[in-house]
Amino acid sequence: MTLRIQDLYTFFVVARAGAMQQAANELRVTPGAISQRIASIEDRYGKRLFSRSRKGVELTKAGQDLWSDIDASFSKIEKANNAHFGRNSEQQIRISATPTFAYSCLVPRLGEFTDKYPKLNITIETDKRLVDLRSEPIDLAIRHGLGDYVGYQSEWLSSPELIVVGSPSLLQRGRPINDAIDCLGYRLLRDTTAICSDWQLWCEARGIDERKALYGPSFEDDYLIVKAAVEGQGLALLSDVYVSEQLKTKQLVKACDAAWPTHFAYYAVALPVTFERPAVKIFVQWLKAIAAEDISSIR
């Protein structure tokens, strides 16, 4: 039988707390996730571990036997963790973001946050999928969408624009761009996750025949498109927040003034209880502040 340490530790925390909600707060998951883990243990071992009461939960005989066997071990592990790492879990924030957002927006400014709040410990993980904040050890996800995520709370951060950018050297040796249609005189870099769609919509919005476009290489990640644009391989249609640093350093410049406001925005997404944590409140406020600064610096 496979050993499920996470489920056993959940049992340990619930037994110590005597309440599902308190255990959920400590483990930073939903009470539903706690119930599922306990049910998983009970199903696997064929024994009831808790009985429910008005005061919370109480250990059954089988639960007391299991508790007596694992209490000392998990207590020792927690003590070792606190001794070696010495961090309060309330001071830790684990964040999930897309690779491009992390590289372009978070990492360049993160030093400012750690200087200002040295006691808060930030961990950033990159993932394109929408992580399950109920069961995975992630506190906060930063996502691009409409902000409507069932079961979660979302905080608006910024609304990016799609802009056409290119390297100064490419634009200097190419034909002048006086209007949007002149962009079709250059190779257009595209995203493999939505082949041509952004450029197609951009052209349609300006009454341009997109079939005349000459497309260059395709890339799976926006960061690779940024890199290709910096190297002068073609024009890119990207969110302005993704290229703010390159615009500041003049590695890229706006090829034309035909910006395209998107209908989507960046949101900080978490469980409602997570947003109540003081450390998370501080971080989200900081995110909103730097998002506003980044937008104002490039528009």
From TrEMBL:
Transcription found in the keyword field: yes
Keywords linked to the UniProt accession: DNA-binding, Transcription, Transcription regulation
Presence of the UniProt keyword DNA-binding in the record: yes
Matches recorded under SUPFAM superfamilies: Periplasmic binding protein-like II, Winged helix' DNA-binding domain
Superkingdom to which the source organism belongs: Bacteria
InterPro entries found in the cross-reference section: LysR-type_TF_proteobact-type, LysR_HTH_N, LysR_subst-bd, WH-like_DNA-bd_sf, WH_DNA-bd_sf
Residue span, HTH lysR-type domain: 1-60
Pfam family, one: HTH_1
Family membership noted in the UniProt record: Belongs to the LysR transcriptional regulatory family.
PANTHER family registered for this protein in UniProt: GLYCINE CLEAVAGE SYSTEM TRANSCRIPTIONAL ACTIVATOR (PTHR30537:SF26), HTH-TYPE TRANSCRIPTIONAL REGULATOR (PTHR30537)
Protein's name according to its UniProt entry: LysR substrate-binding domain-containing protein
Originating species: Sneathiella marina
